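#struct-pred

JT: dropping the chains for the assembly here, can someone run the whole complex?
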Amino acid sequence: MINSEEFTAMHWLMDIVQNVDAGLLVLNREYEIEAWNGFMENHSGLMAEQVRGKNIFNVFPEIDKKWFLQKAEPVFILNNRAFTTWEQHTKLFHFKNYHPITGIVDYMYQNITISPIKSVRGVTDKISIIVYDVTTVAVNKLLLAEANQKLERLAQRDSLSGLNNRRHWETLIENEFLRCKRSKINASLLIIDIDDFKQINDNFGHSCGDSVIRDVSNQIRSCQRETDYSGRYGGEEFAIILPDTSVQQALNLAERLRKQIEEQSFMINGEQQSVTISLGLAEFNPEFKDHIEWINAADSAMYESKKQGKNKVTINKQQNS
Amino acid sequence: MSTSELSEDYRDCFQEITNVAMGQAADKLARFLDVFILLPVPNVNMLQPSELAMALSAVNHDESVSAVCQGFIGSGIAGEAMLIFNDSTFQEIADLMNADSDDSNQLELEILMDTANILIGTFLTGLAEQLEVRYSLGQPSVLGRHVNIEDLIKINEKRWKQTLAIEINYKIEGSNINCDLLILFTDDSLNILKQKADYLLE
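RK: done, full complex below.
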């Protein structure tokens, strides 16, 4: 027999279980609800008397049954506790966020712990489920990830041109170089330099120079394909990586870009001015030691264009056969 | 007594305890996946952070890995259990679990957590039973996904100097599935562990 002291202790223990700010419920082998604490009552709007003895999937049709069984069955069979996080499955029960006014999500993110309960015969015939409200942690983590992504984008971008900055572009070409080397596929590299940029800066001022850079960058963006990577490589120097593209195919794009810039009139100090670019092209060559050699090959082709009178596309001469 | 030394007696004792606990864990995983699990001899060592990555035998250092870790504390013993997978093994495990999903990212996470629940949970229960201690288990968390093994373990390098590490390399027969279960104890757990081992050694 339980004496009165033990009875009192059990009473306040039950009281704590009833009032603890985490969901507690017990399911039997048929997934019928056997216990249901205050947290579950308040968040679901269903009292213990209303749900006791009922199958949980009937009471809560929104529960992803297949997923939940995959987690709960091993607890019965292996007699082993199982944990799930909101990162796997944001919520088991569709409960409202505790902060319906100030919160930024509508529902409660939940971590779940499923533990076996052994019968007196030593068989696991019930499971207990604890539902933790982790909305705050989850939302913070999601916001942090979003902020990091934004920062990463900012760190990779050149603010004037809006293209990839040099540092990020260099990691892109390094990756492309390794990809070509590994899978023996083709790619071309195009380097672009604005002709007589120093004179634009000297004669009209740096703000005019900046606006020329912006206009040329816009043209580059409009010419390149989805899969190409463009970047601002130096002051007035740009580069585009063209994956899976032969140098002859790349020549079409380079010529188109050269013509577009030549034909566009740039407004400089209220006057129409023309700007031209010199371009150099180099196809990936398996003999390149590293991506620097590839850049150098395209660069020397670009200088060849300058030497030949500018406003011109040149293919690296080792490859122009 | 310096905690950095681990006498042969203690090592043997921890190894024996590990053998039993990892056997129980392997048995449950085998039943869950319906496969035969190959059990190696566990490694029990005092390790420094710099040695940890090298100690992981299942991990292919050229490849990216994913890991879950779960903390435990109680009876004066505290530590973390880590389960580390080579990313290339996920598909094979998914096939064994008959799990499929359009979202491979989601699928990997489920596999990682399900396997961690079984291996870590059972191993720590087995360990506690033998040492006659009780501890609480924290919520498992994903330590890293698709990362380099060195980056994974480097995270807290500054905070700990050395640790008792138990490394178990589980393999599934007839497949390339291979994962590492790593149990790391805090410095101050070691004395309690030795005391418990003394009872067993007597």
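JT: nice. Chain B touches chain A at residues 28, 31-32, 70, 99, 106, 109-110, 113-114, 117-118, 121-122, 125, 137, 139-142 (CB under 8 Å). DSSP finds six helices and eight strands in chain B.
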